[in-house]
Design a protein that fits this description.
alpha+beta; four-stranded mixed sheet; 4 strands; rod-shaped
């Protein structure tokens, strides 16, 4: 048996030539389409990288600004209210009006602390304690002395006092 001679037949030659040319054209078309697609993907990836970098920079700026604002806010916390409470007024039989007047007198002494930052007020806590404890109060012909039992500092300065007879 022998292999048929297709190379002599022109129809077969055109068929094989068409296959070869079609293969080359399809290969070139595939490479072109792949290249265009890869260019689009590369451009998309680069745009995404740029966007991510910009967003990271924005986040860093916002975080830095947020930290600075937090530091400023912590530094700038101000005393907004001062509360004074006398706890043992029943021991000496003092009426509520007298107790209230004593509390108001102490508040008048400490009114300069309002609108001051907490750090400054805290640094002067010993002075505040001395101002209150050196005060002598006269009620019903008797002299009383105030003693600081508790001193709490935040936006509301809370002072708990006890009253004792002055000797």
């Amino acid at each position: 048996m022998r292999v048929p001679t297709f190379y002599n037949d022109q129809s077969w030659q055109r068929f094989f030539a068409g296959m070869a040319i079609g293969g080359v054209i399809s290969w070139l078309l595939l490479i072109y389409m792949y290249g265009v697609q890869q260019d689009k993907q590369t451009l998309t990836i680069q745009e995404q990288k740029d966007t991510i970098k910009e967003l990271k920079d924005d986040i860093a700026i916002w975080q830095e600004e947020f930290e600075n604002l937090n530091k400023e806010n912590i530094e700038q916390l101000l005393v907004q209210q001062i509360t004074v409470k006398i706890t043992n007024h029943q021991k000496y039989g003092l009426d509520l009006l007298s107790v209230h007047e004593i509390e108001e007198a102490v508040l008048d002494d400490l009114k300069t602390l309002k609108a001051k930052d907490i750090e400054t007020v805290y640094k002067n806590r010993d002075l505040i304690r001395r101002v209150i404890e050196n005060r002598s109060v006269s009620l019903n012909g008797k002299k009383y002395r105030l003693e600081v039992k508790e001193l709490i500092f935040f936006t509301n300065v809370s002072i708990v006092l006890q009253i004792t007879l002055d000797a």
